[in-house]
Amino acid sequence: MDMPLPETGVTTTGPTRALAEFVAGLDLDQVDDFARHAARRHLIDTLGAMIAGATQDATLSVEKAFAAAGIGAGAVPMAGVAQRYDALSAAYIGGTAGHGLELDDGYRAGSVHPGGVVVPPALALGAQRHVDGRRFLTAIVAGYEAACRISAASHPRARWRGFHNTGTAGVFAAGSAASVLLGHDADQVENMIGTAASYAAGIFTFLAGGDVKRTHPGHAAREGLLAALLTESGLPGPRGALEFKDGYFNAYAGGDTGEVDYAKIDLLAAGDNHPKSRFAVANCYMKPYASCRHIHAMVDAVLDMAATEGLIAEQVKSVEIGSYRVAATHGGVGWSEMTTAQMSIPFVVATALQRGRVTLADFGEADRQDPAIIDLAGRITTGVDAECDEIYPRKRGAKVSVTRHDGSVLQRTVMEPYGSASKPLSDEGVAEKFLGLAAPRLGQAKAEEALAMLWQVDELADVAPLAEVLAA
């Protein structure tokens, strides 16, 4: 039973309250068919990434750490995971797994990965509380809205302060999804936001190496869920926590500089929308390549040259890439570890040229030491292109020029990479990706059973059986 929150006597009217009222008032009947189908697609895509990532080193490290601390054991299943955990630990493990292989979805305007912070806590709490599929899918839509709008309002100012939106804004997304499942009213959602704001975390130190980036969505998923549960238990939080002077936007996104008056923004209009829907989930992208999304337009460009011009790696003398400033920073990232290799423009583009693909199989230790790829990577340079920088973050463009040994030059401009809402994977492509990621872990029959349930998720009477099918 919910415990009543203390009366604060404070009424807010800013972006925090707008988000709280949206989350509390959302019903699936308000969600258009296009966005509802997008929510199913992104749920499927995220779960595939989680299942495949359940056995990666970072996920296993989290499980070992929980065991060493004596925490985590419970009855809640998590996609791709064999052991059952408490809901908070399951959410952390699921978020880590989903982000770990650079296969998860994203929202360009906010440079954020919403699936990994929304789906794990929703699945964990939904299974524990035996919620129906209709409320579950509503929670997914609400969580995506929070992740995307807060990140879009912050980006790129938060990035230049060193913050990773998935980890920071992710707490509000996880908490919003949980609040829908718990049936919170607007006051409770605003309370959750105020509590979650203290738990926002995640910086870009991962560009120097290590695996901590993998855990950012896990931390956000757990802490956002905890904020919602603390609200259910009666813990009071501050109001207006996104916009007031000591709040989230001032601390993380430069509100203290006076550049933006965050108290006056229309938060639910931040970012951009698909022409067919006002909901953010409808305008998110999926990843066809196992690398940082900032690099995908460049991969599209060289793969198109290979397909249409017969370009092969042996012909390449040099590659010059121009892109927006955020992407160009990845031109100096090395590839000593899988984490950094997936973030490295030279390594990823060289891999695409050398192998005609960018898959999980291309980032192993032997692959990162492949002399042909290393040699080619050394001939790839990256800089800032004024046009690409001007249109970012509205689009994630890149201009690629390849000079061949015979002196001829091939050029491509890709302003919107494959997998975006304007160049989407087909439903068949989403299903193929899911089965390719899930079947090796679950078995083909179980993966197909899960997929069939997911396409009809809003018709399920209880999502707990779905969670069981998704678990290893």
If you had to describe this structure to a student in words, what would you say it looks like?
It comes from Roseomonas alba. By secondary structure, the chain is α+β, with helices and mostly antiparallel strands. It folds into 2 domains: 15-283, 2-methylcitrate dehydratase PrpD; 293-414, 60s Ribosomal Protein L30, Chain: A (2-Layer Sandwich), CATH 3.30.1330.120. It is 50% helix and 6% strand. It is built from 22 helices and 5 strands. It has helices at residues 15-25, 33-53, 57-69, 87-99, 115-129, 133-154, 157-160, 165-168, 170-182, 186-196, 212-232, 248-252, 296-309, 325-328, 338-341, 345-355, 365-368, 371-377, 386-391, 427-442, 444-455, 464-470; strands at residues 73-76, 316-323, 380-384, 398-404, 409-414. It has a 4-stranded mixed sheet with strand order 3-2-4-5. Helix 4 runs antiparallel to helix 5 (115-129), helix 5 (115-129) runs parallel beside helix 9 and helix 9 runs parallel beside helix 11 (212-232). The longest helix has 22 residues, at 133-154. The protein is globular, with a radius of gyration of 22 Å. The two termini are 32 Å apart. The mean pLDDT is 95.
What is the strand and helix layout of this fold?
Layout: H1 15-25, H2 33-53, H3 57-69, E1 73-76, H4 87-99, H5 115-129, H6 133-154, H7 157-160, H8 165-168, H9 170-182, H10 186-196, H11 212-232, H12 248-252, H13 296-309, E2 316-323, H14 325-328, H15 338-341, H16 345-355, H17 365-368, H18 371-377, E3 380-384, H19 386-391, E4 398-404, E5 409-414, H20 427-442, H21 444-455, H22 464-470
Parallel strand pairs: 2-3
Antiparallel strand pairs: 2-4, 4-5
Helix pairs in contact: 1-10, 2-4, 2-20, 3-4, 4-5, 4-11, 5-6, 5-9, 5-11, 5-22, 6-9, 9-10, 9-11, 10-11, 13-16, 16-18, 20-21
